[in-house]
## 1
Amino acid sequence: MPRLSVYFVRASLVYLILGFTFGGFLLVNKGITLSPMIWSFLPIHIEFTFIGWMVQLAIGIAFWILPRFSNNTPRGNENWTWGTFILLNVGIICIVLQSLFNVQPLSFIGRVLEAFAFAAFVIGNWRRVKPIGA
Ligand code: HEM
């Protein structure tokens, strides 16, 4: 597994733990109201489980298993996908900070960073999506 996929998968596992923890707080709070504030964790739970865990895991594994080139850069220009890793995780952090501290533009900035992260992944890996022998 390439080093970058290791980072993606490890980060996704951290978000899995965080996402389920926040989900647990939400679930408990529905049965026994600990604090009304806990409901504001919902966007954080969604961001951690969906983008942080599931999307990030899919990207990390895709980078590993998509067809490789038979030259000395088998995964093309990896800088694009390094950009994906950095932009995606900074984006997630921005969105979570917005939910926690209500700093207004952070959520928008986070979504823009995430959009750039996905675009960078597509640009960096588009040519790897090809049939056998092509
Ligand atoms: C694959 C993992 C998960 C994903 C993608 C996910 C995603 C979501 C989403 C999108 C919502 C909002 C639903 C809505 O607004 O109608 C939600 C709500 C919630 N999630 Fe999760 N979740 C996951 C796992 C979990 C786990 C493991 C727990 C508990 C430990 C949990 C507890 C909750 C609770 C309590 C709510 C609020 C439900 C309500 O509206 O009353 N989730 N989750």
## 2
Amino acid sequence: MTHSRHLTLTDLAATSALGHRLAALLDAGDVVCLAGDLGAGKTTLARQVIADLCGIDDAPSPTYTIVQVYETAAAIPLWHVDLYRIEDPADVEQLGLDDAFDDAITLIEWPERLANNLPADRLEISIAITGAGVDTVREARITGFGSWESRVDEF
Ligand SMILES: Nc1ncnc2c1ncn2[C@@H]1O[C@H](COP(=O)(O)OP(=O)(O)O)[C@@H](O)[C@H]1O
Ligand SMILES: [Mg+2]
């Protein structure tokens, strides 16, 4: 059984608010998958978490570097990962993600690229964009897997 929550992100402030709440929950060993199309707000959400936990504003998107590593004020490594450019799942192995899953806080954009290699304990935030122009709406679905099933209620 998995637990799922649903939120409508009406504007940037709503996405930032979700980032604040997420940041407050995270600890070493936590993995957060950020799913959704280009422009959904995955990096925006990760950036808020990095600002809150690491004191770094305007963290760059890891689209080209694939991994950016930060450190929280509590000296926990924070990995911001974007797997968009990964085409061969074998390339993922070289990133050392398994170590990060154990010890760091890991935020992963395009987690689909990991297919069956996602950790069993993970939070997934999937953002879907509907409509266009002024009618654009972002819907976030928050799902806890494994140990995150009960923690989803903390949102
Ligand atoms: N509610 C919202 N949440 C997040 N981003 C939004 C929102 N409304 C508009 N935007 C804009 O959409 C873009 C999202 O970009 P980004 O976070 O890089 O997306 P992704 O990483 O999913 O490709 C940004 O330009 C941001 O300003
Ligand atoms: Mg992004």
